Each structure stands twice: as C-alpha cells, then as structure tokens.
Amino acid sequence: MKNTALKVWLTAAVLIPVAVYAQPRPGNPTTATVITKAEIDKISATEQTQRTRDENAKVVDIGDGWSMELGIIHRASTRNPPPAPAAGAGNAQAAAQTIPCGERMANPPADAIPGAITHDNQTEGYYIVSGGGTAFIDGHVVNGRHSTANPDGGPNGPGCGGLAVGSRKIELKVGDVLIVPPGVIHGWADIPDHVDYLSFRPSHGVMKNGWVNPTIASK
Questions:
Q1: CATH numeric code, 33-204
Q2: pTM for this structure?
Q3: C-alpha span between 53 and 65 (Å, rounded)
Q4: Which of 133, 135, 136, 185 is the most buried (most CB within 10 A)?
Q5: Per residue in 140-176, pLDDT tens?
Q6: Domain boundaries, the chain
Q7: Is the distance from CB of 117 to CB of 187 less than 8 angstroms?
Q8: C-alpha angle 138/140/143, rounded to 5°?
C-alpha cells in the first residue's frame, strides 16, 4: 500500500509541473488560428494577372512579441512576363527615400544576379504549390537599396534588395520547401511559366498582430 501511494505521489510530482509550464504565459494567446484553403485560393485569385504579388492572409499573435504570417505569393513567367504596372509618383517617392545597403561595387561581376532580396527581421519558409523555376540563394548583396516600408500586413517589413554575388542556383518544384533566415539572400532567376507558393513567416515586433487581408476579412 505504501509503495502504491508513493508511486502515485511521485507521478503527480512529475506531471503537475509539466501541466503548469505547458500553459500559455499571461498575456499570450490561448486559442489557435485556422486559415482555410478557400481563403488562400481567394487571395491567390487576385494575384494571377500580375508579374509579382505577395500578400499575407493573416498576422497571428503567437506570444512573447512574436507573430506568424502566412504569405500567398504569385510570380509570373520571367520569360514572357505580363506588362509591368505604371510607376506612380508614390513609387518614385518611396524609391527616393530608400538608403543604400549591402556592398558598394563600381563594377559588379558579370554573373551577378538581379533581384536579390533579404529581410531584416523575418524568416521565410516557402512551400511550392504550383509551377516552379530556378531560384537563387545565399551570397551577398551588392549595390542594394534598403526599404524601411513596414505596413501593418507586411508582407515582410524592412529589407534590402539589389544584386546577388556568390549565390547558388537551385531548382524548386511543387512540394519543395525552402527555409530562409533573416538577412539571407533569396530570389528567382528563371520562371518558365509561373510559380505560386505559401510562405510561413515568423517575425518579432515587425507586423501588427490581428491584421487580416481585406480580401478575406469579415464584412
């Protein structure tokens, strides 16, 4: 009897702290979030006529100042792209306000790749859902411009864009996953037809928790 009681006491002593520490800390969220395929498809449908479009579905509070965003990205063919949108005065003003980033180089190497992107504070995990192409990753940015744009819904917050030097090319197809930490170069060198992908984005203190894409927001 004593042995049985001792076993019960020891089991409780082990399990009770686990139960306590498994609870969300005060102020952290206590509910999960669902983003449906129908919502993803609805956002994606608005992107299909554009060269490049990247929108988050929701910015979800995951506690301790962190958020998780789900991005839905469409990139059209780099070989036969649709017409580029007209540049407005707002775009010109935003470009004028950016500051240099990356290495400054008067004569970049011939194999430098345009379209390099890095994000200051955000990790991205890509999951290819349609199409594919040749991406480039790693290396360093040359003659970049730093964007400080930080709208509530992202998609990414501040970052650097320019030429990629020393990058490596990889093929990405449906079902493939790419994980890119903050500050690491990524971009697309060649897209034969199109590529659509989801981007899972944890970030700290960058986005406005609770933001919902207007396309799927409740009316």
A1: 2.60.120.10
A2: 0.84
A3: 27
A4: 185
A5: 999 999 998 778 888 998 999 999 999 999 999 999 9
A6: 33-204
A7: yes
A8: 140
